[in-house]
Write a structure and sequence with these properties.
Elements: H1 14-30, H2 47-58, H3 60-75, H4 96-113, H5 122-149, H6 153-160, H7 164-184
Helix pairs in contact: 1-2, 1-3, 2-3, 2-4, 2-5, 2-7, 3-4, 4-5, 5-6, 5-7
Length: 198
């Protein structure tokens, strides 16, 4: 027998559905200010901040589900992406890899931040948000952008460095929001945390 209580898998309940809907809405709201491009065809937007928060707060599966719901709404034509973009056409454009990265990135963030069903810590939150919210999103976004725009991968990678400072600011902001929420309102999290061994 172990001292830590077993954590059973929870089914999706109405509270989970509400959380997923709220974060899909947050991503949409973060797209309202629009985006801007420095180089290339992919805009810099605030929506990746929502991806970071979804993974860190909702955990891996609900975080990824909230991104999937958001992208489904975009696919059926709702203008929820920055600049009022929507419709199936965005999924054959230069930003499609980044959109796929939203789902996988939220999943990876949640897996790291909530590793082993443990309560989030500052360092795991930073690591999860940087790895999932930046590196994973880039890993999908840059190669597909290069493929669609027919630019060499090294050139696309170089121009994508313009995203890094803003994404680091968003990562710091997402970490601060997550840790503040953890202290002030832990019920916002889907709590299945184990008790750490002493």
């Amino acid at each position: 027998m172990t001292d830590a209580p077993a954590v059973s898998a929870r089914r999706l309940d109405t509270t989970d559905v509400a959380r997923v809907a709220v974060f899909a809405g947050i991503i949409a709201v973060l797209g309202l200010p629009g985006g801007f491009t420095i180089f290339g065809a992919v805009p810099i937007t605030a929506q990746t901040l929502g991806v970071m928060l979804a993974g860190a707060i909702l955990g891996p599966w609900l975080g990824a589900l909230s991104m999937t719901v958001f992208l489904t709404l975009v696919a059926i034509g709702l203008p929820l992406l920055s600049g009022g973009r929507g419709g199936i056409g965005v999924f054959v454009g230069p930003s499609v890899g980044y959109l796929i990265g939203f789902v996988v990135g939220a999943l990876v963030i949640g897996l790291i931040v909530h590793a082993g069903s443990r309560r989030p810590t500052l360092w795991r939150t930073i690591a999860g948000i940087v790895v999932g919210g930046i590196l994973v999103v880039y890993a999908f976004g840059i190669p597909l952008q290069a493929l669609i725009t027919r630019l060499p991968l090294p050139e696309t990678l170089l121009t994508s460095l313009a995203f890094v400072p803003g994404d680091l600011v968003k990562a710091a902001l997402a970490t601060a929001i997550t840790m503040t929420l953890l202290r002030a309102y832990p019920r916002a999290f889907r709590r299945t945390w184990t008790v750490a061994a002493r």
